[in-house]
Structure formats: C-alpha cells, structure tokens
Amino acid sequence: AVAVKPPMLATGEGATQGVRRDMEDKHVALTQLPGEQGVGFGAVYDGHGGVAAAEFCRVHLHKNAMADPL
Length: 70
Hints:
By secondary structure, this protein is an alpha+beta fold. The chain has 1 helix and 2 strands; from the N terminus they run ββα.
C-alpha cells in the first residue's frame, strides 16, 4: 500500500501602504481549516470602512463560513 500525503499549501504576504498614515487592510491565510482535510482559506479585507471592520472580518468570517456550510 502506498501512503498518500495531502497536498501542501504555501502562502506569502506583502503590503503596500501608499499615502495613508496607517495600514487599514487586514488579511488571513490559513493553510488548513480545522476538520477539513486539504481545505485552506485566504482573504484580504479592505480597510476603507475602518480598520475595526477589516479586523472583525479577519477574525470571524472564516469561522462563520465553516459553521454554516452550503
């Protein structure tokens, strides 16, 4: 029998602030979602609505999506 390893996902990240005083965008890069073999999640949240909204999405959106699958 041959052991099959799940595919590996590698991520990288970068940011350019531009003319704004502070970086308001947030991101998340999860190479493995809990309980989901071979499923990752990545997103960039635009901070134009304020950093608090982008941070809230960074922390909660993937959890809410996993709690209510289609």
